[in-house]
Structures
1.
Amino acid sequence: MSKISETSPKHCAKKGGINIKNRHKKLFFTFSTFFTGLLLLIFLVWLILHPEKPEFSLTEADIYTLNLSSSTTHLLNSSIQLTLFSKNPNKKVGIYYDKLLVYAAYRGQQITSEASLPPFYQSHEEINLLTAFLQGTELPVSQSFGYLIARDRSAGKVIIGMKMDGKLRWKIGTWVSGAYRFNVNCVAIVAFGTNMTTTPVASIQGTRCSTTI
């Protein structure tokens, strides 16, 4: 007499559940392998192209006003115009610049309000000139500001820092990276005129700026 083998409904359901789980696992491993490979490809392209930091230099800085409101207050009025030279040194990587803010500083003190520059795209090895007019009206400064600026004026020159903060994105082919914060620091050695309120004073020596990302 042959043995009758019966599979219970519970056993079938369990077996079917295992098959479904196996399918899900296969799909999961397929997609994870695909995305891992894609990320690895992007990373390899990134390593091969190796984007270099943008280059900036200060080509001109004109100071029109740099005076305390009065001898008894510590409020500064200032107006400065500057021109920056910007270069993308990469041969195969473009750069998007976003949210650019420029301001001037003297001995660690901000002496103008922040000026906003329009966002722009810089193609491979492209060069751009950026201009900004910086102004400050009754900005609070330290008590020693008047003494320091007078001492530098008597020496015939003053060192002004030009700073730019912003965000950039790398463009490789059609792929665009996330945003990276960057900072640019420039130094302008400016010769003082006899009357800072009426006589524009030009600086520049074409100083190279430092860029950090």
Note: The CA atoms of residues 35 and 41 lie 10 Å apart.
2.
Amino acid sequence: MSLKPAFAAVLRSVRGAQHRTQENLADAASRTYLGKIENGASSITLDKLDELADALNLSPLTLLALTLSVRDSESPQDRLERACEEVRLIEDRVGMQAIQAQLVGDKLTKRRPNRPADLEKLTLVLACKAEGLTQAATARKLGLNPSTVQFLWTRALPSPE
């Protein structure tokens, strides 16, 4: 089962248990949009999830835990226990400081776009460069696309860890 019908079932049930109508949640979303969500015809954004959870006096985490529990046919408690363990592992491997370092205030930090280089090709291109070959000559010698050679030309081999 995908998340859309699972979330739809959770939202319908929670809203019904609170004796709320779609109109009662107008501060979070229009009735039309809620209808689409509750019929599994529309996905929800994180910001909208936060607004809906707030309108239902719940945490977004609660709605997500319930949704994942429905999708995976497991208890919400089991799902949350697994999530807590996953959080502990991530904290051990990554650390909250590393995650927070990606933000300045409430904005993401800028980072240079980067795609990984093929280490074998990079080594060959840098060897040709060291021999004094031009990029065009390197592309011909190695049988590589000139744009690949250009991409690798200014790169450096990663330092051994």
Note: The chain has three domains: 3-73, 75-111, 119-153.
3.
Amino acid sequence: MSKLNTFQRVRDLSDWRAVAFGATLLERSLPNYQLFCELNDFGEPEQYRNCLNTVWDWLANPKARVNLQVQLDRVEEAVPDAADFVGFGVYPAIDVCMSMTALLMLMMGDDPQGAVVISKLSQGSVEAFIEATSEEQLDADAIKAHPLMQWEIDFQSELLDRIAQCDRQKDSIQALKAMAREEGMSNIGLEME
């Protein structure tokens, strides 16, 4: 499935399904932020884990109350500044931060296209990683054909298929979270703990 089709399908998501899509992609990319924090002695990576757990709880328990503004404030305090760090790792970490912000803004009703933002950031992280680790200059077709990008596009497509079929029951939500972790790697191929 092409990128355009994926993004159009994400645009068509609404309410909790859009949040579930974003949370699943974040579950898959969160190790990028956690590893960056550990390697650079930056922030408290569990802060993002706790925030994402809160989102999963909200998805599984529709009556749960979440102070989204407090969550957003905590997330925004823990964004690294690329100018302060050497190395590629800061960029996927920033993408996770921007994705978490987009997810919370989506839940607050301030960004109805938050799921699209997260989808694009996830694919953008993969593209940047491919470019950063390639020994040669790659054109758009070569990047799109790269196994890591194919995996990303396939994952998002399969996720959209699953979300279309699931209901907002606790076991369905847990299955989405498990889907993000089942291959044991983040979207850029980092091992999950």
Note: The chain has a mean pLDDT of 92.
